[in-house]
């Protein structure tokens, strides 16, 4: 016990945390205390694992994998979540329905609070209600933006894509980075995780004000509601967007921000945050790089593309049409050399449970919405068409096939904006790993590359 206490003291000292050392499984400990207490043990675990098994060969890699986007190469450490091709995502061992059942909810709410998922991703523990309320309050207290960041957003032309504005504003928060300042002063590498935690908490806390301001500037009157310090994160984001009065929309945001957080380490946004972070760039710079990756149409921007595609379909063929008409429309998309947005996945080989969670929400709240009905009809037809088409390894829908239809139902109809909401949530998934990367002293990431001539030489010798 005294060893645990002394390592806890060392970790807290190392993080510059002015907190008391309470035992980490306590349901009253703060998030930073909980984390500080876990770090020494995890450091020892990884050290022992590397010492005993570090030399073992894990898998062989084929040339197809090298030229094929590194699919399936097991080469990353990601503590928060694991994706199974059949089952889908588990966050620290919990499925989405488990999270819906076990994570704390807002008073009167039924969906989990993303604050709870952030806590779970970072610590592997389900927080108490009080811990989640305290985290909501802490994020609300840190939410204000520096004036120059507000002005920067306000000066963006409304024609600049919301994701570009989002990443620009997150990059500008670098000005406030505790990590960058501590590094410049010569911080000991054992202490890196402390300012990384502080920056992560700050940047997450400020995202509703950034995301909301971008939305209000581009699509509304530019007026931004103040953060309500007695409310949770999803309420505050909804309220700034202009939907705070709509309890169902706020519930949707709680679900949305929970399920979009994390999808293990290899997806573009998560991998980017980790890669850029490995150069000891601040959490702000690492996150903004991740957001730039999320803004690609094969990744997060697919939610924007899906709504556009569904709306075009509705405008072309109408609603309440036959399965045959939808089938023809799907073939038209494929034959024009485009992908069916919202379908397929690099890892999943079944319907994405994040799609199912949103479908359950729609069945509960908007079963008669014509757009939801159209999405449901496409769901029954597209897998067959994509299978017949014969290219995609996964003909089933992913998370992006459903989110836009829910948002448009409540009046958030600006599809160009949808990826920003994905980005707010993704921050809650990638920053916990960055904190662990720093706590575990993960090195600069630097895989080996060759030109094609060299690869030819290598494989011909095999
Ligand atoms: N429609 C048509 N063709 C598709 C397809 C789709 N939805 N999904 C995959 N294919 C095609 C690929 O373009 C590829 O074609 P080529 O051989 O001509 O290049 C072929 O099928 C094989 O692809 P795959 O191995 O099954 O899929 P990948 O791992 O390469 O790519 C993904 C995965 C998601 C990029 C792809 O399925 C896709 O483009 N889907 C549509 C866009 C989308 O929904 N993206 C969101 C993913 C979730 C997220 O990250 O947010």
TrEMBL record:
Pfam families reported in the protein's UniProt record: Citrate_synt
SUPFAM superfamilies membership: Citrate synthase (SSF48256)
Transferase among keywords: yes
GO cellular component, one term: mitochondrial matrix
Similarity comment: Belongs to the citrate synthase family.
UniProt GO molecular function: acyltransferase activity, acyl groups converted into alkyl on transfer
Keyword Transferase: yes
PROSITE patterns in the cross-refs: CITRATE_SYNTHASE
Domain of life per record: Eukaryota
InterPro entries to which the protein is assigned, alphabetical: Citrate_synth-like_lrg_a-sub, Citrate_synth-like_sm_a-sub, Citrate_synthase, Citrate_synthase_AS, Citrate_synthase_euk, Citrate_synthase_sf
Catalytic site: 299, 345, 400
A GO BP annotation: tricarboxylic acid cycle
Keyword terms: Transferase
Protein name per its UniProtKB record: Citrate synthase
């Amino acid at each position: 016990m005294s060893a645990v206490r002394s390592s806890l003291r060392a970790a807290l000292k190392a993080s510059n945390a002015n907190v008391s050392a309470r035992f980490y499984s306590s349901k009253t400990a703060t998030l930073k205390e909980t984390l500080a207490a876990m770090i020494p043990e995890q450091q020892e675990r990884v050290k022992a694992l590397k010492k005993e098994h570090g030399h073992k060969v894990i898998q062989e890699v084929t040339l197809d994998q090298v030229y094929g986007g590194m699919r399936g190469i097991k080469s990353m450490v990601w503590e928060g979540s694991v994706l199974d091709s059949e089952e889908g995502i588990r966050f620290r061992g919990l499925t989405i329905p488990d999270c819906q059942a076990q994570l704390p909810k807002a008073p009167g709410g039924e969906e989990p609070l993303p604050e709870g998922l952030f806590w779970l991703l970072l610590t592997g523990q389900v927080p108490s209600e009080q811990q989640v309320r305290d985290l909501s309050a802490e994020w609300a207290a840190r939410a204000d933006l520096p004036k120059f960041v507000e002005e920067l957003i306000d000066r963006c032309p409304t024609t600049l894509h919301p994701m570009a504005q989002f990443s620009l504003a997150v990059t500008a928060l670098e000005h406030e980075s505790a990590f960058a300042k501590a590094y410049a002063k010569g911080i000991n590498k054992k202490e890196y995780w402390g300012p990384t935690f502080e920056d992560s908490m700050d940047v997450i806390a400020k995202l509703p004000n950034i995301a909301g301001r971008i939305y209000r500037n581009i699509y509304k009157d530019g007026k931004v509601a103040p953060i309500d310090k007695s409310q949770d994160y999803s309420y505050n984001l909804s309220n700034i967007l202009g939907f705070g009065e709509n309890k169902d929309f706020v519930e949707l945001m709680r679900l949305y921000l929970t399920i979009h957080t994390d999808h293990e380490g290899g997806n573009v946004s998560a991998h980017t945050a980790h890669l850029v972070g490995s150069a000891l760039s601040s959490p702000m710079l690492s996150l903004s790089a991740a957001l730039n990756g999320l803004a690609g149409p094969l990744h997060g921007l697919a939610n924007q593309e899906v709504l556009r595609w569904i709306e075009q379909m509705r405008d072309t063929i109408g609603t309440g049409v036959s399965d045959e008409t939808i089938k023809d429309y799907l073939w038209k998309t494929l034959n024009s050399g485009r992908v069916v947005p919202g379908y397929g996945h690099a890892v999943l080989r079944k319907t994405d449970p994040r799609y199912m969670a949103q479908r359950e929400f729609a069945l509960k709240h908007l079963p008669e919405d014509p757009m939801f009905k159209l999405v449901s009809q496409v769901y029954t037809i597209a897998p067959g068409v994509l299978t017949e088409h014969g290219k995609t390894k996964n003909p089933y829908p992913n998370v992006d096939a459903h989110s836009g239809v829910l948002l448009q139902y409540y009046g958030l109809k600006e599809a160009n904006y949808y990826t920003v909401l994905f980005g707010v949530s993704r921050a809650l998934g990638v920053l916990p790993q960055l904190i662990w990367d720093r706590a575990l002293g993960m090195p600069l990431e630097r895989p080996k590359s060759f030109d094609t001539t060299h690869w030819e030489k290598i494989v011909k010798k095999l």
